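Summary for the lay section of the report: proteins are chains of building blocks that fold into shapes. Here we show the chain for histidine kinase and then a coded description of the shape we predicted for it.
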Amino acid sequence: MKRLLVLLSLFLFFKLQSQQIIPLNEKSYIDSLQSITKGNFPDTSKATASFLLSNYYRNSDSVLSKKYLANGKILARSNPFFSAKYYYYEGQYNLDRNKRKAGISYQQAIKSLSEFKSEESDFFQALAWYSYGVSQKDKEGYIPLVKIMLEKSIPLVEKYKNSRNLGFLYTQLAVILTYNAQFKKAEDYNNKALKILEKQYPESAELFFTYLNSANNFCYQANGDEAEKFLHKAEKLIRPYPESSSNAFYYYSKTLFYITRQKNEEALPVIEKGIFYAKKFNQNLLAQMFYFNKYDILKKLKRYKEAKTTLEDVLTEKSLAIDLNNRKTFYKQLSLLNEETGNTREALLWEQKYSKLNDSLNTENVKLEINKLESKFNAAEKERKIATLNAEKNQKDLEVNKKNSYLWGMGLVLLLALSLLAFLYVIFRKNKKINEQKIEDIKQKEELSLTKAILDGEERERERIARDLHDGLGGMLAGVKINFSTWSSTHLHPEKDQEFYKILGQLDNSVSELRHVARNLMPESLLNFGLETAMHDLCEFYSRKNLEIDFQAIDISKTLPLNIQLNIYRIVQELLANAIKHAEASSILLQCSQSGKNFLITIEDNGKGFDKNIENTTKSMGLRNLKNRVNYLKGIMEIHSDDQGTAINIELNIHGE
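The coded shape description reads as follows.
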């Protein structure tokens, strides 16, 4: 149990420090960054502020984080160095969502940043290398990560002797070493960090976390006296900033200190303070760690009922229980708690869950061991066979040498014949490939022509129906309504003939609805004012009391051909309709931007998500029609959907029609 608490605690600090540390005066820092993004500052300053805000919100508000990341990319596009930095922040955004994508972004950042020679470039390369190692940790373990830190990250920054960034990387390495029980080496690297930070940056967040890392390192060695010294130093730094999210980590280290000193009663109010800060700043994993420590202390104090409720809540929340080894431990603890309180039936149920999961994990471990043994056996067998073959080869070499003279002549003849055949085959393959490409091009042109004909016909029919409804039927109904109004004013009494006036009101509503349908079929604002205004109107139309739609338009040209504007409008209309009808979202972000011949559409919602293969399993035409319009404009579409919401990115070629 104690070992599990140690590993979980260290894992928590490791997770925190795989990102850049936020200054302790957090509110002032965030307000300053937001002011820069909205103020009259150079694009490079706005790009930096947007990247930092994206990194700040990446775990607490994914929609806002993605928005700042996209804005930063646009602002950085004219500056090669800031465009290179973008790839690092793109990796940060994906680190806890998709480690494979994050790893690709970090490698791209390293490659792009290596073209610039400056301290800032070296530091971002060092960060990218470190974060790349973190993204590969689950596959490769901690040894490659330590190697990356020692051979890649730290050497890039070590040449800047008293750099704040060097102190930061030293204490990062110390966290990893503590996690792997290398306490003395961790202490050495923490001391290296302290030597730089205490002298050069005495008020920094890097120094604050180095104090906490040092305190934790001594707590895990049961050296409470040394741990207390560093906790006092950390407290002096954080005390002026009661609104900082870093308070949660201070209280967590203080909890570990009280546990080390076995002051369980004193630890409980500290845990409650930590839970307050962790919940306030959406630090879910940290909050669950506080609850798990609370459970352990309540159990030691024999407050079994409270301990049981606390542990069940940790298991339900799943931040910690997603790891199978953690879950197995929770099952065992719940079994022991119920046995302790005399609830043998429930104790048996938890013991059965524990045994089942334990057997499953043991089976996997046995498989791994068998695979290792098989690999060793196969390697030894291959070496034996190679040795035998080498002996036979040496024997036959003597015989082969005698025949070489004859074979050389035959070989030259065969070589010429094979060269001729290879040449003819290459020509055949080339011609075949050219013909296949021509056929594929013809097929694509035919498909595009068919799609164009269908979409053009559809728009013409929409226009005809809209015109007939608006000018024909709409005009007739409006005339009837006017005639009725004129006649009633001279023949009817408003109070005595209320039923008639009620019917007249229904007729008026019908005329309004008819005109609304006509405008939906062929939006007048698109024809009169252009695409951007039409999309603004569309978002206002779909907005509800319980639904907020944030529309952002960037560099949309007013000279786009009308048929392209219509297709983009229909794509956005379909995206919004799908999000509103199916996602049950309360917030939608729609961003449209134009860059040269490319038109980009991004829509994100916080709804319930959907199965991306739904078009293959239902008769719904929504996604199919959407893809037809995207293909018509030679575009590409990416869909990311889970139970946290849906994000759709579309890139259209607006000059490729």
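Put simply, here is one thing we learned. Residues 344-491 form the longest helix (148 residues).
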